[in-house]
Structures are given as C-alpha cells and as structure tokens.
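Researcher: Here's a chain I'd like modeled. Treat it as a single chain, no partners, no ligands.
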Amino acid sequence: MSTTDTTGDEVACPGGARQARETTDRLLRAATRSGAHLIAEAALLVEGWAVLADPIAGAVYSTPAAAAADGVHAAADPHEHPHCLRRPAAGAVLVLAPGPSVPPERAARVATTTAALLDVRGQRAAELRGEQMRLHTTLVRLLLAGHTSAVADTLGGNRLTHVTVYRLTGADVPTAHQVLWRAVRPSLAPHADACTLLGRLDGELVVAELHRGGDDGRVLRLVSRVSERHHLLAGMAGPLPLAEMPTAHSDAAAARHSATPDRRIVPADAVGTARLTPLLPTAPYARWAGAVLRPLTPAHQHLLLVWLRTGSKPRAAAALGLSAGTVRARIRELSRLLRADLEDATVQAHLLLALRAPAPADDHGSEDGNSPARLETLPAGLLDTEAARSWALGLVGGLEPHLRIALTCWLDHHARTAPAAAELHVHRTTLANWLTQCAEHLARNLGDATVRAETHLALRATRTGPDDPAALPRRGGRTYRRL
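Model: Modeled as a single isolated chain. Structure tokens:
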C-alpha cells in the first residue's frame, strides 16, 4: 500500500518526486520511534503546528505544546479554522496548520501520510491491547488480594505509595473501556511517578490510579468525560495508601450507589458526610460515638459504614466482595455486640452518626456519669441544641401533615414503598407521588441512604405530635384531606 499520492507535476519533475520520497522517509523514521515524534516531524514538514486530538482525552500529541487548545478546537469545529487540514486517524483527528510558504499539495501529502502512519500504529496497538488489558485486570485482582508489594515492585518499587480507585457501571462498559484505554494510554513502565491500571471485573470497569500520594486530576477528568458520554455511573475513593486498596475498592462501590444521571461520578468522602455532623458539639459527640463503637474493630466499622451507605445488604455484599449471606450473618453478630436492633431505622441513623464522628480526645467509655452509651437514644445536648433544631426545621419544616406522616412511615420501613403504603392504607402510586413531592420540598435525593438517615433524624427532632399512620388526614374511604 502506498502512503503517498504523486501528482503529475511530481512525475514530470524529478525534484518533486525526490522531495515526496524524502518527506515520506522522514515520517516513516519518526513513526518507528513514537506517535509524539511523528506529530513533531509533521509539524516541522509543514512549517506550522500539528495536533492529534481525541474527543475524550483532548490533545494526545501536540507540537508545539501551546497549539494543543487550537488543535482541539479545530477538530471540533472545522468551520472556525478553515486554514487547518483535518484527517481522521487512529480513532482521533489529526489537525495540521501549515505555514504560509508551504504549497497546499505538500501540506496535504504530509497530512495524508501522517494519518496513514498513525492508523498503522493504532492497528499494531490494537493487536497488543487484548493481552495488555488481561494483564491489567490480573494486576488489579492481585492488589485486591493484598499482594501490594509484588505489584508495586512490578510497577516501580516504592515510588508508588497511594491509590485512587474508580468503579464504573453501565450498559456501555465494554466500549467505555476501549475509549478510556486509548485516552489514558496506560503504561507499566517502571520508575514512573504514576501508573493507571484498567480492569474489567464482574461486569464493571475498575480504574486504579497508583501515584505518590496525590494525583493531577487528569484521570478524574477522563473518567468524568467517559461517564458522561457513555451514560455510566461511577464511584471514586482515595487517595489511600496502596495497602488499603481493598478499602478503596469497596468505598468506591458504596459511593457509586449514590451516583445519578445528574451526578455521574461521586467521591466516597461525599457519601455519608452528613450536613448535621458539623453542627453537633464536638466533645460530647466524639465521646458518645467512641463509647458506642468500642466493641467494634475497624473492619466491623467499615462493613457497617458500607452497609449504611449503600442502603441494603445485597449492595453492601457486592461492594465488599462478599456473599449476601455472609453480610447478613456478620450484621447479626454486630447487632449482638452493640446490644441494639440494627434493623431499626432510628438505630441505623444513630449508628451512621457514630461512624462519622471525629475521634474522641480521650478514652472514657461512659456518657453522663456511669450510664452506658446506647444506640437507641442520643445523649442530652447532642441533637436537642438550637443549631440542630434550626437545621432540622430548615430541612423538613413546612411539609404538609400527610406528606410528613407518609415520609416518616416510609423511612421506618427502610424506604420500601409496598409495606409503607399498606400501613398507610393508600395505593403505592399515591405514596410514590407523595414521596416525589417530599423530595422536591426537601431539594434532596431520597435515593441516597445518608439523606434518608438525616431526614429521619430531622423528622424526630421536629416532631410535635405522633407522626402515626393512624393520624393521616382522611376524608372517607382511602383518601385524605388537606388541613
């Protein structure tokens, strides 16, 4: 296959044909080195600038670097840059801006040859991509199994100390994997300051960015673009020490369950972070939480936090990589350790508060004299302060009586519509409509387990009468009337 188009003038003019061969030879030599060298050589030959622009990654290669933005804009909107030459190449767009003294025929020949060579490089990379992807998946599994030293040695010894994990799900995960692979251009070269692993595990895409304590945000931007373009939902956790990769993995899954089409990527530190906790008095809050959680190990606390964040045992099991039966058994055991009914909605809300509390300044295990701390009740002076009441009124104040009663009943039933509707003696569609009105009034996402826990506490803090289904305003039969 020829990569040049020789014109009639070049055939008649030996000098023109020789120049075409020299141009092709220079581009071929550059292509054998790297894509960056190929783009640099093309820019030199057209006496201007050259950019390979990817719709997700932006400028893949650019010569000079300052031309990257212009190249991306020219690829997206060619009508605004009529002087530029555009060629599709390797799933991206090659953009050349020739200098004024370069003949159009020569610029076109450079553009066509460069695009053809980029395609060849892309085909070669695609042939190797399958093996590389399987290697990445294996390395991710090794990290999750705790073999961090072996993976770290493979990737550059002790230079990579921390990890940031992204977990993406959606119908278009296979395509998103290919697109993100091209955009990230992952490498396992040792002694690098950062390394990104991309693996497919159990139908989801896992991205593990290994670095030295902090990242530059590039992978986050790419994951965000891919999630938006391919309609994926993603959770993010980290940076955490490399040895805590399993924790980051489960935290990312817990965060992903709070993602929505309006907010496709959710960081783990934004999940379970109640707006209420900063308003609570720090010292008594921390002492109560420390006393309540004393029987639990860090592993116990992590399991409970993932369970409460995700809102269900099957989701927690998926996030932790355990069976649903194992999670249920462990929660039953923790219920005995804490001497509390962990299936109670109020206990769950209090437990989430305790798990999000700051570390206590001392290690005194009791609360208010010799009274043991309990999950069923909060100590005096914690939620009954003016700041907490103002927060609660700001959240649920103004709800109509039937909406307040319906929301309270639904939360007591752990966000299950059918049993709540049965207790309220209304149709499930009616209850669903009321819950939609509640969400609009609260301006909060009731699909988030943390939001539900906060709302439950706010309803209890502002209760002036029994929020009892029997008190639901009615007007005969199964209807209600507004007060």
